[in-house]
Amino acid sequence: MSAPSARTGYVTILRRDLLLAWRRRGEAAFPVLYALIVATLFPFALGPEGALLARIAAGVVLVTVLLAMLLALDGLFRPDVEDGSLEQLLLAPQPLGLLLAAKILAHWLTTALPLLLASPLLAAMLHLPVAVLPVLLVALALATPLMSLLGALVVALTVGTRRSGMLLALMLLPLMVPVVIFAAGAVSAAQQGLPFIAPLAWLGAALVLALVLAPAACAAALRIALDA
Amino acid sequence: MDKFLAMGGYAVYVWPAYAAFFVVFAADLIATAARRRRVLKELRARIARQSARRSP
Amino acid sequence: MNVHSSPTLWNRLVLWYHQMGSPPYFYAFAGRWRPWFIAATLITAAIGLYGGLLLAPPDYQQGDAYRIIFIHVPCAWMSLFTYAFMAGCGLVGLVWRVKLAEILAMEAAPIGAAFTFVTLVTGSLWGKPMWGAWWTWDARLTSELVLLFLYLGVIGLYHAFEDTRQGARAAAFLALIGVVNLPIVHYSVVWWNTLHQGTTVQLFGPSRITWSMLWPLLTMALSTHLYLGWSLLGRARVALLELEGGKDWARAIALKEASRG
Fold first, then answer.
1. Which residue in A127, A190, B27, C121 could disulfide with A50, CB within 3.0 to 4.6 Å?
2. Domain extents for chain C?
3. In this complex, which of C160, C161, C178 lies closest to A174 when CB atoms are compared?
């Protein structure tokens, strides 16, 4: 009996994770709800003037989405560690990086995509100029997969530890700084009428690089953290 | 001497900077020394327990 | 090439490398060398501080406030040097599973964090009279802050594991990720700074620093390097005792130290 191909493994993992997420589809709303709450609090703290809110809108949306993703990140491997299916993945004949890529994609689809869909609403609440909205969406579409990939790398390292949300945030911050700078930089450049393609191109380049490298690095991190 | 301590009017900035420098590294050394004492004490307690178990 | 043509030297180097990997041997070695590091650190610090605080003339622009440079800049250099050292040891530990390399990497992390912290505090104390603010989002300071977070992440991850060696390996991996990340952070912060035309007052531009200011600075840089040796050897000795508590050599030392008092 020969092992199923890597492609089959990838599709199986993706389908399994999506099915599991679908069974608990109520939970997918949590990050969106969290982002909504945070975005609502900003006008209360800063006052309702449209001009001020418009100036900070893009940054607030970006940081809010980042925090909401951070909140959901702990769930990427935790259930699989608890029910032992992660150990099975480590032993599978298919390349681990590829299987993890499927898990990361499923996680992005179930947590980041709802946030991405909700972000026009958040932007509207904060008076972001409509003309800039497409730039924000493109920036988010490039930044959120990057956050998922880099986040997975960090979560993989903490898999063998006790629950530690604060540590996760501390480890993730240095990785997120360039992502936030370029994503917010693109939107604020667009808002000022400056060319915004360059920062978006940098984000795209980083995303391509992360797509190739992060799953393999994530696999190495997981093997170290579980001492396999 | 007073002129040295005054640091040309910048004493409020210069001396706290030097104080931070020395305090941080002194704390580093003291913490290591305390940790060494604790590790040795625990090790000796472990040896005492084990020899007590071997020859009651 | 030269090394291979003289096998005795090469063999001696290999032997030394393997001996260093043995905990009791390194423990004794560190114990022998540590006093020299202590003495050298204190002497160079005394000379450097004397030269910097008393002999060097006041700066024509900054007056005496610039004297913070003699601790700020060496600490900033050391914050990066220690990170490189930590990541290098971490790599050796990950690839060849050398226990001592893991220990050195993990014991270097708090020292590096201390250097980074001092850099930030002294930079802030220097910035107040020069920029008029305790903190500016200048590229150097911001990168240094991110470096502090990197160190704290490594230390936190190391302590989050029940198993010390597993924690050391995971934290070493995080340190290596940081090596890739740190230049990216620095250049993105520089770009971010040019985008937001902030207050980018350079503390030291291309100004020519005179010899009477330079030699105390270099002496202090040497002193901080030696301090890394001092602190690291002491920390590594304790960590070895902690990790090897079940072994005979560690027990012998514990009993010997007790009789000494």
1. A127
2. 29-198+209-260
3. C178
Q: In Å, what is the CA distance from A143 to each residue of A60, B31, C201?
A: 14, 42, 31
3-state secondary structure C178-228: HHHHHHHHHHHHHHHHHHCCCCCCCCCCCCCCCHHHHHHHHHHHHHHHHHH
CA distance C253 to B40: 9
Cβ C157–A171 below 8 Å, yes or no? yes
Whether C252 and chain B come into contact, CB under 8 Å, resolves to no
pLDDT of residue C64: 83
**Which stretch of DSSP H or E encloses residue C175?**
helix C164-195
Q: How many domains does chain B have?
A: 1
Residues counted in chain A: 228
DSSP-derived secondary structure for A29-51: HHHHHHHHHHHHHHHHHH-S-HH
Segments in chain A forming alpha helices (H): 6-23, 29-46, 50-73, 78-82, 85-91, 96-107, 113-125, 133-157, 165-191, 197-225
> Does residue C206 surpass a pLDDT of 50?
no
Domain extent at residue B10:
2-54
pTM score, two decimals? 0.90
Q: Cα–Cα distance between C186 and C138 in angstroms, integer? A: 11
Q: What pLDDT does residue C7 have?
A: 67
Give percent above pLDDT 70 in chain B: 98
Measure A107 CA to nearest chain C CA, in Å: 22
Q: What is the ipTM of this complex?
A: 0.89
Which residues of chain C neighbour B5 with C-beta distances below 8 Å?
Answer: none
DSSP-derived letter for residue C58 is: P
Q: Extract the tokens encoding A200.
A: 């978006």
Measure the CA–CA gap between C142 and C48, rounded to whole angstroms.
28
Yes or no, beta carbons of A227 and C191 under 8 Å apart: no
Tokens 């964090």 belong to which residue? C113
Residues 114-173 in C contacting B (C-alpha not used; CB under 8 Å): 114, 117-118, 121-122, 125-126, 128-129
Q: Do A and C count as touching (3 or more CB pairs closer than 8 A)?
A: yes
CB C106 within 8 Å of CB C163:
no
Is A3:A91 a contact under the CB 8 Å cutoff? no
Backbone torsions φ then ψ of C151, nearest 5 degrees: -60, -45
Long-range Cβ contacts of C94-98 (<8 Å, 24+ apart): C94/A224, C94/C169, C94/C172, C94/C173, C94/C176, C98/C21
Interchain pair A224, C169: CB under 8 A: yes
